[in-house]
Amino acid sequence: MRTTSQFLCSLLALSSTPCIALAQQMPPLVALGAVRVESCAEASDAEYGFSAVKPIQIGGGPLYMNAREHRFLDALRGPDGQTLRVVGGIGSGPANLPGFGRTIIDTYTVTYEGHDQPISIFMDAYHFGHPRVPKGFTCATPLPTALRIPPIDPFKADPAMMALAIEQATSAFLPIPLDADGSSTHGVAFDQFRMRAFAARAASAAGRPFAPDKPPADLRIGMTVLAYAAACEGLRVPAQRVEIVGEQGMPLQPDGPLVSDASELSALLPGVMIPTSSVAARFRPGTPRQKDQIRITYAPPCEGPAQTVLLPLTMDPARLITAATAHMPPGNAEPDPTVYAQAVIDLEGRFKRAVALGGPASLIPVALESLEQWRARPAQVNGAPVVSPIVLQILFR
Q1: In this structure, which topology does domain 319-395 adopt according to CATH?
Q2: Is 266 helix (H, G, I), strand (E, B) or coil?
Q3: Residue 287 banded pLDDT, cuts 50, 70, 90
Q4: Which end of the chain has fewer CB atoms at under 10 Å, N or C?
Q5: By the 8 A CB rule, do 374 and 5 touch?
Q6: Beta bridge partners of 83
Q7: How confident is the model at residue 283 (pLDDT cuts 50, 70, 90)?
Q8: Is 0.85 topped by the overall pTM?
């Protein structure tokens, strides 16, 4: 098999259909990322799904756990195709998983027609592996299709990106151009990663460096737009208003007043060349979004079309360039040699801050080590590289 990566960021909701109706339509194999796996594979371990230390690894993290757990149960059936019925509440508790350490396990109690005795099914929403059918059950739809590889978990991605910004704070960061032709006639932008790196750089210069594993709890920094002054009737006219405009809804206003004082601008954007009469607009975390635009409005004497400019933010996802082959360690005979991980692609296309999401514990160290040789073209905004999280599927030869 070849090593590759899978870029994922979406969920697919599937309705439950009786297993009997799909018995002849269900293919034996379906795609799970870059590999083809059994549609309805029964677990070889009799404790799979019935023990807190051998849970069904659903993946997705707290943001997607509820939808993914219910989609798994919707696809599961009793031995004769009976629809499952969840009874009682949902339990949660800690557990230590071999190879992954401490996590939280959710417990669902189910029954089905002809079996009134409640059955407890244990699921782990913080890790992911090829989903299988617990002993004594069948499935109505292919389990890998019902779940798919989990999307990016922001609760893992945000701390990783913060730690990377602190780690690379001394690097030089080119701004994001705002004009469609790639120029910076009207201004530039600095995304959340760049702004965090600037904050870490300033803290280090002040003798109070941030700890990558424990950054300040109140450090909430989003994108910053540096709007240059416009030339109107021979004068340099500063921007009066800077907004982010989406496809729908009200324009997003800056988080606080515009910054125009030269010393404040220098402190906000250390090492950045700031033209005279520029202003900076700071926006809350989470921006920009797909199809957002920057709208800059200038004060008089700018009139007519020159008074307002609309600058698009064009986003392109990261693309894999090279992937080092992950070789099976000698003597290892894992039946499902695939490791799932989440990492961050930095501005140079390196895969950083990788954490394992699932797969054989014996292969995880080798899998994460192989990522050091992977390279990608970073995600881009208006042609400038930006840091982005990614979910990966690492296959072994």
Answers
A1: TolA/TonB C-terminal domain (3.30.2420)
A2: helix
A3: low
A4: C
A5: yes
A6: 77
A7: very high
A8: yes
